Amino acid sequence: MEILQKLKQLEENLKTLEELKQEISVDDLSQNRRYEWELRYGFFESIQIMIDVSCKITNHYNLGTPQNYRECIELLGKFHYLEKTHINKYIAMIGLRNLLIHEYTTIDKQKLYEFLNALDDFKNFIGEIKENIS
Fold first, then answer.
1. Rg of the chain in Å (alpha carbons)
2. How big is the CA angle at 86 (ends 114 and 29), to the nearest 5 degrees?
3. Which of 8, 50, 58, 68 has the greatest number of C-beta atoms within 10 Å?
4. Residue 50 in contact with residue 44, Cβ under 8 Å?
5. What is the DSSP letter of 79?
6. What is the value of pTM for the model shown?
7. Distance CA 128, CA 67 (A)
């Protein structure tokens, strides 16, 4: 199933982001633009996978007709594919993705770095989806 392949890619991305978390500090983001790019792209791709999976499940199981990515996440919560207590965290990730795309010149490096502390949210997403689509 394509969804499981996407989740596997997300797991691989998380390993890379965890390595970055161990290797760099917030000061490194300012001193080495490459680290910032790695972090930005790692988050962007990971969040996009989360969105793709959410929208594919919403469509596959005919959960509704979402008008945006946020609604894909909300529908998964409504139909118990995702824990309702986690929905706002996942929606915040979509907000980060939008910032990465549209406000790329004004991203606060400290806040970007702090998102490394939210890697467990991605892990929760993976676990919830795997549990509820099998």
1. 15
2. 15
3. 50
4. no
5. T
6. 0.93
7. 23
User: Per CATH, which fold does 2-133 belong to?
Assistant: Four Helix Bundle (Hemerythrin (Met), subunit A) (1.20.120)
- Judge contact between 122 and 50, C-beta under 8 A: yes
CB 104 within 8 A of CB 40: yes
Q: Phi/psi of residue 61, each to 5°?
A: -100, 10
Which residue, chain included where needed, has tokens 């207590």? 85
Which tens digit of pLDDT belongs to each residue from 58-67? 999 999 999 9
Dist CA 16 CA 24 (whole Å)? 12
Q: Is 80 helix (H, G, I), strand (E, B) or coil?
A: coil
Residue with tokens 């986690």: 86
Measured between its terminal Cα atoms, the distance across the chain in Å is 11
Band of pLDDT at residue 1, cut at 50, 70 and 90: low
Query: CB burial class (10 A; 0-12, 13-18, 19+) of residue 101?
Result: exposed
Question: Is a pLDDT exceeding 80 seen at residue 106?
Answer: no
Task: Cite the DSSP H helix spans in the chain.
Answer: 2-23, 26-31, 33-60, 69-78, 87-102, 109-114, 119-133
